[in-house]
Amino acid sequence: MSKVTKQNRSFLTFLLETQSSVQKKLLLQNITPPQLKALTEIIYNLLHSDITLSKDKLTKLKKYKSALRSLADKSVSVKQKKNILQRSIPAITLVLQFVSPLLKSLS
Known about the structure:
Elements: H1 3-7, H2 9-17, H3 21-29, H4 33-47, H5 55-61, H6 65-72, H7 78-87, H8 89-105
């Protein structure tokens, strides 16, 4: 994982551990550019097989394929990515659950 991901590990962990959907929505509405970059980098790595997942986990993410691809696309603007995040909170939660062991291992 990159330097940006390491720097924003605490935000990503907090987002994952937040139980309230209202609070998650507020966190994603007010996400900073470095936090967004860290999150989209993780999604990019998932989509490009840099992070391996079991078939079961991939199946769970399949219904969010379009949103995840848009978030990982560098040609999509930050404003558009924020809008996509608001509509795909369950997908973000799943992604963070799947990579949480990697996030915890970052130092």
